Amino acid sequence: ILNVEQSPQSLHVQEGDSTNFTCSFPSSNFYALHWYRWETAKSPEALFVMTLNGDEKKKGRISATLNTKEGYSYLYIKGSQPEDSATYLCALGRFDYKLSFGAGTTVTVRA
Amino acid sequence: EAQVTQNPRYLITVTGKKLTVTCSQNMNHEYMSWYRQDPGLGLRQIYYSMNVEATDKGDVPEGYKVSRKEKRNFPLILESPSPNQTSLYFCASSLSAGMNTEAFFGQGTRLTVV
Fold it and tell me: For residue A102, what is the DSSP state?
């Protein structure tokens, strides 16, 4: 089992402010890193899948980077809006065909 | 519409009474898996399947069974549920088992075992 840690566990951000949070993992021995967005009472939805060191992905105001050498990925939200309130999950796609999730970072955007 | 469908959404049952949670996907995905989500923990993988008649244990398989007789369906079976299996369950599917394709999740099944 790969230990995937996300920090912080939760954060509050003012509408219009930007924020970022971290997914860290112990090794580069994995196939891909996934980010999912999970809104209350809904199912998780994929944001990004990254495989290469230095990968950067962007979807609207949300972007992510991957550093496999130092074992972390950052997710950035630019100009946070109330609809960005959700739990953001990081997961590692392993070579044994399994997916290991972190516990998530819960973002609350205050109007 | 491309989707993963789980049923039921909510279930309350008694200890020891066998139950099945169904999962179906309409995207012709090869890879399907089941997860449980408990407070403070990440999603934990129970079982996965890389294709028809190919299933394998995830990280927390004890107390669960699965089958994959058709590509679209991947039911989760609890032969003798216990209270520690009270949890939120998600089924998911991906195009391939390469782990570099995104997972599509069902709506979740909230199971309570009393």
Answer: -
Between CA B106 and CA B72 the distance in angstroms is: 13
Q: Is there a contact between A89 and B98 if contact means CB atoms under 8 Å apart?
A: no
Q: Would you state the structure tokens that stand for residue A20, as one six-digit string?
A: 């970022």
For residue B10, what are the contacts with CB-CB under 8 A and spacing of at least 6? B109, B110
Is pLDDT above 90 for B81?
yes
For A17, other C-beta atoms within 10 Å of its C-beta total 13
Shortest alpha-carbon distance between residue A11 and chain B (Å): 15
Question: Is pLDDT at B30 greater than 90 in this prediction?
Answer: yes
* A98 neighbourhood in chain B, CB within 8 Å: 45, 48, 58-59
Partner-chain residue, chosen from A44, A51, A89, that has the shortest CB–CB distance to B100: A51
- Give DSSP secondary structure letters for B49-73: EEETTEEEE-S--TT-EE--SSTTB
